[in-house]
TrEMBL record:
Highest taxon of the lineage: Bacteria
Keywords attached to this entry: Signal
Source species: Flavobacterium endophyticum
Signal peptide residues on this chain, from the entry's feature table: 1-21
Protein's UniProt name: Asparagine synthetase B
Length: 421
């Protein structure tokens, strides 16, 4: 090859290389991403490595824009996450499109990886809780904490807290009717009583209330709290029932307080109002907040719809609702969904089934912090029962229900000055 031709060829390569290897796009639309859940893990990993990440709200399903780096490419390849390489020009073209007033899109800068805590009893397996399961699958690090850590102000170390499917009322999940003779129930009741005594409380209900108040203070002080299934309504009920004995003798050894329903202070609840507690200890239910026993819908038609928000003016709910579909398959739990008539007007309903008058996915503010409640047990196990086999997320790498959980995990990483609501 003549020297002049070789020189021009090398010059073209040198000119083109820097413009090509500038950004990595993790597309999150339905057709382009082979593993949506692990894409969140890549994003968290990049933040943890101090890379700057942008969340492109409503752009191709809520895609992520990362700087190009060999270790990010390698990590995507190892984890099976689809990615696209963009030049400066291509990235700027996308950002210009997003910034246009005519587009319902927004760019949110993610600053640093949030520190994550999962409130869960010691010895629980990952598949006992959907959040623990998906965090493990997405390879997002978290710390399991329980009552001792919470009561000793351990929450101060974390930005984001998930509540396990826990009963904060001291009624042991209302499992008495079906499982009071089961060895696991007897053992868990014994362990809870021993822990309460160790921590200086005479009753489990009193100890759980103290834990709930610490979690409340964590949120008021600026923390982000996410709860699913029975941790949603039982947490709210415990706070509203402070100073009132709502537990029957099989739970705490003495009679419940007379006319306790009239003594419930709904002002202390995060999300719910005017609910009626379930007094019967045999009934597997806490109150009429939950719609499980009031639902009238066939499994094959059980879906809920995500709300559509202005990404530029309402980035908070927009972030929490990022997905590749607005129609999400429903799933059940001890607390499957929330009666719309029981939700406070200050709480935002982000996912609902209007036919059933039920909310599935709600969000609110408390003090300086925020909370999100998601009804149901496992987004890919329609009617999970005690003892059922664990969900294998390798079979559901594009689960829109699990994406909602992971939206909440990344949410605290957003640059605060970008939030307008």
């Amino acid at each position: 090859m003549p020297f002049r031709k070789l020189f021009h060829t090398l010059l073209l390569l040198l000119i083109s290389m820097p413009s090509w290897a500038s950004f990595i796009l993790l597309p999150m639309d339905e057709s382009s991403q082979q593993n949506h859940l692990k894409a969140y893990g890549i994003t968290y990993w990049s933040l943890d490595k101090h890379y700057k990440v942008s969340w492109l709200l409503n752009y191709r399903g809520g895609s992520f824009l990362l700087p190009d780096a060999p270790e990010i490419r390698k990590e995507c390849q190892i984890r099976g996450v689809s990615f696209e390489l963009l030049s400066d020009g291509q990235a700027n073209q996308i950002l210009d499109e997003i910034s246009s007033p005519s587009q319902n899109m927004e760019t949110v800068v993610l600053e640093k990886a949030p520190k994550i805590a999962v409130y869960t009893p010691k010895g629980k397996q990952p598949w006992d809780d959907a959040v623990t399961l998906v965090l493990t699958y997405a390879e997002i690090p978290f710390t399991a904490i329980y009552d001792e850590e919470v009561l000793s102000d351990g929450l101060l170390l974390y930005d984001w807290l998930h509540l396990h499917h826990e009963d904060f009322t001291g009624q042991y999940g209302k499992f008495f009717g079906a499982y009071r003779n089961a060895p696991w129930y007897i053992e868990q009741k014994k362990e809870a009583e021993e822990l309460a005594k160790k921590l200086g409380y005479s009753k489990v209900s009193e100890e759980k209330l103290a834990v709930a108040k610490k979690i409340r203070d964590f949120v008021i002080g600026g923390g982000f709290m996410f709860a699913m299934c029975s941790a949603t309504d039982s947490f709210d009920i415990a706070l509203a029932a402070e100073g009132v004995d709502i537990c029957e003798p099989m739970f705490d050894g003495d009679e419940s307080e007379g006319n306790y329903q009239s003594k419930i202070d709904y002002n202390n609840s995060f999300a719910f109002k005017d609910y009626i507690l379930e007094r019967n200890p045999i009934v597997y239910e806490f109150s009429d907040i939950d719609m499980t026993q009031k639902r009238n819908i066939m499994p094959e038609k059980d879906y809920f719809t995500l709300m559509d928000y202005s990404a530029k003016w309402d980035p908070i709910p927009s972030m929490l609702c990022q997905n590749h579909t607005q129609l999400i398959k429903g799933f059940m739990g001890q607390t499957t969904s929330f009666d719309s008539d029981r939700i406070k007007s200050s709480v935002l309903v982000m996912g609902e089934n209007k036919v059933n008058n039920e909310a599935r996915y709600i969000h609110g503010t408390k003090g300086k912090g925020m909370f999100t409640y998601f009804g149901g047990h496992d987004p890919e196990d329609y009617q999970h029962r005690v003892g059922d086999a664990p969900t294998v997320l390798d079979l559901h790498p594009n689960s829109p229900g699990y994406r909602l959980i992971l939206n909440n995990v990344l949410f605290p990483a957003a640059r605060k000055k970008k939030l307008k609501t």
